[in-house]
Design a protein that fits this description.
With 225 residues, this protein is of the alpha/beta class. It has a single domain (26-193), classed as 2-Layer Sandwich (Nucleotidyltransferase, domain 5). Helices cover 28% and strands 23% of the residues. The protein starts with 25 loop residues before the first helix and ends in a 16-residue tail after the last strand.
């Protein structure tokens, strides 16, 4: 499985907007992207920490939309939200049988940590980083690339929609909403179903579900009772 932190994401662009001999042919681009899915990931918080969420916009190798994922995370840091989006992208690829995943993120910190260029010193981020590396190893190929925020607008939009949903719940509970830290405000989203809650027990360091089943590769959040 390709997870060499020294190797940058490949140079060919799926949809180049400029011509010239320096750019690969359509056949080369098709070969380079065939079988890959592309996940634009973003996370944000309104305050740091504050109400946080992630958004993931996933496309197939032809540019078709496969999924739009988002989740409100409660009061978390921006970096926690970024890693949560990455985990959701990897979990989607594993759960739906996509062996090759290319991730696009505007979080330079997360990208360089995943490539091994930066250390992960935060005790809150370390478990998320280790989970992302472990799950990525289950893919045949995995690549991650940093881009500017302007090239990650779809994921940013989804993260803001989830923050708006969460802000509405917080406001109903008496907590005022705040503008996102470094994120564009988005319109109010349609309500979505809350994640299912399952019970489990830890035996020998492994969580065993006692009242349901989970598909292989799904990302979960564990809350001790």
């Amino acid at each position: 499985m390709n997870l060499d932190p020294r190797v940058d994401s490949p140079k060919p662009s799926v949809r180049s907007q400029t011509g010239g001999s320096e750019h690969p042919s359509s056949a080369t681009r098709s070969s380079a992207t065939e079988g890959w899915i592309l996940a634009h990931c973003d996370g944000g918080s309104r305050g740091n920490p504050g109400p946080a969420a992630y958004g993931v916009f996933i496309q197939d190798d032809k540019g078709g939309v496969l999924a739009e994922l988002s989740e409100y995370l409660g009061r978390k840091t921006n970096n926690f939200a970024e890693y949560s989006g990455l985990l959701a992208a990897i979990g989607f690829a594993l759960a739906h049988g996509h062996p090759r995943l290319r991730v696009i993120s505007d979080s330079e910190l997360m990208v360089k940590q995943m490539k091994g260029q930066y250390r992960v010193n935060s005790p809150d981020l370390r478990p998320l980083y280790e989970a992302a590396r472990r799950l990525a190893q289950k893919l045949e190929q995995f690549q991650i690339q940093h881009v500017l925020r302007e090239k990650n607008r779809q994921a940013d939009r989804l993260a803001n929609l989830a923050m708006d949903r969460g802000a509405g719940r917080d406001k109903a509970a008496g907590e005022p909403s705040r503008p996102a830290t470094g994120r564009m405000a988005g319109p109010t989203a349609r309500p979505t179903a809350r994640p299912a809650t399952l019970r489990g027990v830890v035996r020998s360091g492994v969580v065993q579900i006692v009242d349901g089943e989970l598909p292989e590769g799904i990302v979960v959040r564990i809350t001790p009772e």
